[in-house]
Design goal:
This protein is mainly α and about 500 residues long. It is built from 21 helices and no strands. The longest helix is centred in the middle third of the chain and has 37 residues, at about 180-215. The chain has two domains: about 5-175, no CATH class; about 185-270 and about 350-505, no CATH class. It is about 70% helix and about 0% strand.
Amino acid sequence: MLFNSTEFIFVFLPLAVVLHFLVARRSLAAAAIMTTISSLCFYAWWKPPFVVLPVLSILLNFWLAQKIQQADKPSARRLVIAGVTANLLVLGYFKYFDFLLSIFEGRNPGVPDVPLALSFTTFVQIAFLIETSRQPTRLHMPTYAMFVSFFPHLIAGPIVRWNELGPQLAEKIRYRVDWNNIALGLTIFCLGLTKKVLLADRMAPHVGLVFDAAAAGVPVTAAAAWGASIAYSLQLYFDFSGYSDMAVGLGLLFNLRLPLNFAAPFRSTSIIDLWRRWHITLSRFLRDFVYVPLGGNEAGPIRRSVNLFLTMLLGGLWHGANWTFIAWGALHGVALTINHAWRSLTGRRDPAWYGKLIGWFLTFMTFAVGMTFFRAPNFATGWHMIEAMAGFGHAPADAALAVNTDAWIISKGYVTEAFVRGWLGSHWTVVASLITAGMLAIALFVPDTMEMVDYRENEPHSNWRRSAWLFAWQPTPIRLALLAVLFALVFANLNSFTEFLYYQF
């Protein structure tokens, strides 16, 4: 079931919220059990037999956490290692077994049939086991089950930690209807849904046209390759940012504040800053449980560079069992190393405006190059695109115009047909370029959802504030009408809804 489907919005979600608060009148444990059942039904909608996996995982990890808390330190450490290993083995079997087999067989890896959300739930429970061993906590099975399976974050994050969500689940006040939270949650959900349906999904045809051509071995121009890579960067941004907003909004319907996962990352002026803003909960997990255990930055710049590279390599592999994701992780590992080296040479002083502009341009272009491998179905296609971006691509001599709208632009004399045929070629269009430029402008200059509503994850209740932002959101009749218009536009396009891009990871 998808957040952007009619059955979720109009059937599942209202039932899940109403049942949660109705059952909460009986007991908090009953409400947690009810919402866990709702979440598992949400999960089972995709493929019912696979629901056994999260159920067994929750039971076994909870049992293991109890044993860890009862054991002495040496035994607890062994149990943690065993638990982490077991979780990784399950993830490895479903997600990476065919990839490893393909290496020995000398073939391209296939697309594994990975249980939905396995990567995210694995990281959630690994973090829980490690943190439980460090700081014992009171364990309660219904609460833990809801913590892991809670459907707003179940499929594609954020990767929640027990110290963020666990204490909230134990507070009685969270199990009473809060209409301010309902209003704020629906507002955030609608704005996130708008990002997904009206922005991200609009880019998919333009991106697919170029990448499908490259996968088929058809020549593409530099303009087409750059255009598609930048467009895919924006598609993924609005798709995943929209999902993260919707997850936060859904959490608020249950009076739960999920952690932020995006903070306008495309405004970053360095790759270091970008990774502090993009998929924040994954970056934090990799830092705490991979980079720091490897030694972090404690052993000098060379060791730090090695640790950064290995961390990003594993981060790339986490996204999928394909050489393309390894290449993407390696590129970001190198980029982070160069960025740290540059900071060491120049110091941490604030650069002038032109330095920030250059830093933004280099950061965004590096990200777009990485997205070429991230989107490509295999390494050969990714490399084909990189060659085109470097200027070695060309359009076929008989390239046809891709869409009629480009022919209209030519007929009005805005551009020449030779320009469209020779430079853009048959796989990228003037219209696609204009849409991409508009999307980039929105990402850079329009406040993000969490800025509009001034969401703060550590507050127990909603609190609307007045903000200096032009787009600041307040519960007023005018903004309610605007929200209704946005939802009407989204609803009109729900017949063509698509899966969230991060579902595949």
